[in-house]
Amino acid sequence: MSDTSAEAHAIQVEIHRKMTGEQLLLLAFDMSDFARELAAQRIRDDHPDWSARMVIRELIRISLLPAPLPARLR
After folding, report:
1. Is residue 51, in this structure, part of any structural domain at all?
2. pLDDT tens digit string along 3-59?
């Protein structure tokens, strides 16, 4: 399933083929940062009373762990 038309996808693929490895890596980092910021904003929206540290911990938890942090680590 895709939200991109076949024509737009072909253009995107052509652009990526012309990029250097470094450019592709930087693009991947930018996309990762953007996704992480979206997730962090969702956490902040869901828990407006949480500190920045708590938001970061939850972001790490949802990224790496299948369940909430154990009580001793909160």
Report:
1. yes
2. 899 999 999 999 999 999 999 999 999 999 999 999 999 999 999 999 999 999 999
